[in-house]
């Protein structure tokens, strides 16, 4: 049986638990859930809480996340495109917000951006995908490839030689 409301004390507990609001893409979902659940809290209180959350966790687009990484690593879009195996057109659509990359396309971007395994996991979370799971053989291979700084084409060759689907041949 689900509750139709939460108490103010429960709401405060949720808001004070920083793990609930680590990533920008989770913020809007969390705010939506709070809005639905908080029926016993005065509307003004809820609005104040939501405004506070919006100020603390701005909604960052996929394109902005990638642009920030590109800038921080001193890369040029042309380099990312060449190193990731993603077409110029598709890259432009991601940056402009017209496309959201799949997990495999996000992984291709990880190789193109030269991310470490930890950076790649953070990037995957920000893109709304699961992190690399080391108990999964496929993910373990990708993790090791990132760790060893293999190029995208080397990863494609490795996956193919081991009998796995390549990143570009996603299902």
- Number of strand segments: 0
Spatial shape: globular
Distance between the termini: 37 Å
The profile of the biggest β sheet is: none
Number of helices: 10
> Structural class per helix/strand content?
mainly alpha
As residue ranges, the low-confidence spans are: 20-26
Oligomer designation: single chain
Measured by DSSP, the beta-strand proportion falls in under 5%
Quick structural overview:
This protein is an all-alpha fold. Helices cover 63% and strands 0% of the residues. The protein has helices at residues 8-16, 24-37, 43-56, 62-72, 77-84, 88-96, 103-113, 117-126, 137-147, 152-161.
Features:
0% strand; mainly alpha; single chain; 171 residues
Task: Note down, in words, how this protein is organized.
This protein starts with 7 loop residues before the first helix and ends in a 10-residue tail after the last helix. The chain is built from 10 helices and no strands. Helix 5 packs across helix 7 and helix 7 crosses helix 8. It has 171 residues and is mainly alpha-helical.
Topology:
Layout: H1 8-16, H2 24-37, H3 43-56, H4 62-72, H5 77-84, H6 88-96, H7 103-113, H8 117-126, H9 137-147, H10 152-161
Helix pairs in contact: 2-3, 5-7, 7-8
